[in-house]
Design brief:
By secondary structure, the chain is an all-alpha fold. It is built from six helices and two strands, in the order ββαααααα. A two-stranded antiparallel sheet has the order 1-2. The two termini are 23 Å apart.
């Protein structure tokens, strides 16, 4: 087994495999597939578990991203008035979107692989309202449940 050569600042990313995960069926809002929280989440969990190869994508690492997404969703959902909830979401949206930068950093440190980064970034980019934030949280909840089963 050969490993990418170590270079200044980390491993040579050109030697890393490309992210091979189809995210086109992960959609929130009005176009949300019926099986998003079931078969689709399970298939994504299986793909990412295989991509990590036991060295990356540890459930404890992935759980950090899920936990932060839950924290933001709960913070937004506390507002009872729908109009104020939308305003509350807009105030916090930059911090929610920053989760993409955090997953990129984790990939740079070789804690997650390109497949997880691609999926999680895709999930974060689709969030544009309190409703889609809830859908993203529920998808990641289902994904994490299936992932834990796949990890074993």
């Amino acid at each position: 087994m050969s490993y990418p050569q170590q270079q200044r600042g980390g491993y040579d990313r050109s030697a890393a495999p490309a992210a091979h995960i189809d995210t086109s069926d992960v959609r929130f809002g009005a176009n949300m597939p019926e099986l998003l929280f079931a078969d689709i989440a399970q298939e994504k969990a299986r793909t990412i578990a295989q991509a990590g190869g036991g060295r990356k994508n540890k459930s404890t690492q992935l759980r950090k991203f899920y936990d932060e997404l839950v924290m933001w969703q709960e913070k937004i959902a506390l507002e009872q008035n729908p109009e104020r909830r939308a305003e509350h979401y807009k105030e916090h949206a930059p911090f929610i979107k920053m989760l993409s930068a955090k997953v990129a950093y984790a990939r740079g440190r070789e804690h997650v692989d390109p497949c997880f980064e691609k999926l999680f970034t895709h999930v974060i980019r689709q969030i544009d309202s309190p409703e889609t934030l809830k859908h993203a949280k529920l998808f990641m909840e289902a994904f994490m449940g299936f992932y834990k089963a796949e990890e074993k």
